[in-house]
Amino acid sequence: MNHSVLTAVIAAAGAAVSMGTIGLMARLSEVDSVTVTFYRLAFGALFLWLFLALTGHIKSALSKPTKTAILSGVFIAAFILFYIEAMQHTTILVAVITLYAAPPVASLISHFFLNDKLSRSALLSVMIAIAGFILVIQGSGDEISHDTTGFLFSLASMACYCLFILMNKFGKSAASEWSDTAWQLMAGSLILLPLVLLSDSHIQHSEQWLWMLLTGLVPGFLGLTLAVYAIRRLSSAPMPPFPIWNPSLHLSSGGSYFQST
What we know:
Helices cover 79% and strands 0% of the residues. The longest helix is centred in the C-terminal third of the chain and has 28 residues, at 206-233. By secondary structure, it is mainly alpha-helical. The N and C termini lie far apart (40 Å). Helix 2 packs antiparallel against helix 11 (206-233), helix 3 (33-54) crosses helix 11 and helix 9 packs across helix 11. It is globular, with a radius of gyration of 18 Å. The chain has one domain (3-258). It holds the Pfam family EamA.
């Protein structure tokens, strides 16, 4: 494994750890999920621009947003919203496992339709991951039949997450990677802004603002920026560890917030 691939794998691991903190932070903040998601993306974009300003690369993030970046930002907001709705209608196991079937599905789409070929061992590992997803879903048949709405939200979340991965991996853009990532975060937050303004829930305490800042810094700025970095530099082959680590962290930290069984 060369240095660039190793760096991308470390970035994928960092993204998984960072994004996996969202459930715990949301629970501790005692703020509704839509508001948490909005500040995760909005503050994430602001932290990214601040980072670029401090490192002398701010011009790379101030270019005109591309259609690819805006569309990818829409997919970010959509998969998070569908994920939250799934959590409210089905078990955390079904919601999380369905969502994180997206990277293996994206790997298969890349292999068969986008000429990003997998090795035999990598293809086998992806097929095993998808088989595991199917077994978990079959084992949760009672919960799914009890409320198909939650499972449909889970599938919608998976589809949007898959499209987010593919857009970042194969979307053509002349803009810098930093610019694309910043505009993705901002576009996602703007999609959620009307829902936040119409919400009856408001941030009332300074401690809650602190949690929103941390949410923007860790799962927002660090999580999503590292995820985009890894997606664009890794072939489909090294991607399976990312969907393995991430659901484990969401199951452990998110379960207490959504109080699913």
